[in-house]
């Protein structure tokens, strides 16, 4: 019995830290692209801010983040100047005008533009000012 408890304790010590410091939890990804000024401007205009995980093979090559930005620049509804990309955090964020375009169509267009790069998106969080972060 003692040996089994000791083995379990050692396993938790050996692998428990990796789970806590994986770098891919929602908070880490959101923090990687969080820009307070963008959020304040967006909420003043009643525009939600969306945080998304970038799924797929991210090239660590110089300029990959700029390629993602170019792919998303000009998507109707996305507020100009609000896009933030972090390859290290595998995340991006932007504010959008819900009166111009809904989040669903924006995400469909963004995913179509990223698909040739083998990338996809998944929703992490939306800050819309009505009920705080989700």
Structure description:
This protein starts with a helix and ends in a 7-residue tail after the last strand. 43% of the residues lie in helices and 17% in strands. Mean pLDDT is 82; it is low at 17-21. A hairpin with a 4-residue loop joins strand 2 (84-86) and strand 3 (91-95). It has one domain: 2-Layer Sandwich (Alpha-Beta Plaits), CATH 3.30.70.100. By secondary structure, the protein is of the alpha+beta class. It is built from 5 helices and 4 strands; from the N terminus they run H-H-H-E-H-E-E-H-E. It is globular, with a radius of gyration of 18 Å. The protein has helices spanning 2-20, 26-33, 36-44, 64-72, 103-114, and strands spanning 49-55, 84-86, 91-95, 120-127. A 4-stranded antiparallel beta sheet has the order 2-3-1-4, sandwiched between helices.
What can be said about this structure in brief?
The chain is an alpha+beta fold and 134 residues long. 43% of the residues lie in helices and 17% in strands.
CATH class: Alpha Beta
Query: What count of helical segments does DSSP give?
Result: 5
**Based on CA inertia axes, which overall geometry fits?**
globular
User: Level of helix content?
Assistant: 40-55%
The average pLDDT is: 82
- Secondary structure: number of strands: 4
Q: What is the strand arrangement across the widest sheet?
A: 2-3-1-4
Q: Give the SSE order as H and E letters.
A: HHHEHEEHE
Low-confidence stretches: 17-21
Question: Could you please say which CATH topology applies here?
Answer: Alpha-Beta Plaits
- In total, how many domains does the architecture comprise? 1
Supply the CATH architecture: 2-Layer Sandwich
């Amino acid at each position: 019995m003692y040996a089994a408890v000791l083995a379990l304790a050692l396993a938790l010590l050996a692998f428990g830290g990796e789970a806590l410091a994986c770098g891919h939890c929602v908070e880490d990804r959101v923090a990687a692209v969080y820009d307070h000024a963008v959020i304040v401007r967006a909420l003043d205009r009643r525009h939600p801010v969306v945080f998304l995980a970038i799924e797929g093979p991210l090239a660590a090559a110089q300029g990959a983040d700029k390629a993602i930005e170019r792919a998303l620049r000009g998507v109707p509804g996305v507020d100009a100047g609000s896009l933030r990309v972090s390859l290290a955090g595998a995340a991006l964020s932007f504010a959008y005008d819900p009166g111009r375009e809904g989040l669903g169509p924006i995400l469909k267009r963004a995913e179509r533009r990223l698909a040739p790069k083998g990338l996809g998106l998944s929703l992490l969080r939306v800050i819309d000012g009505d009920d705080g972060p989700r």
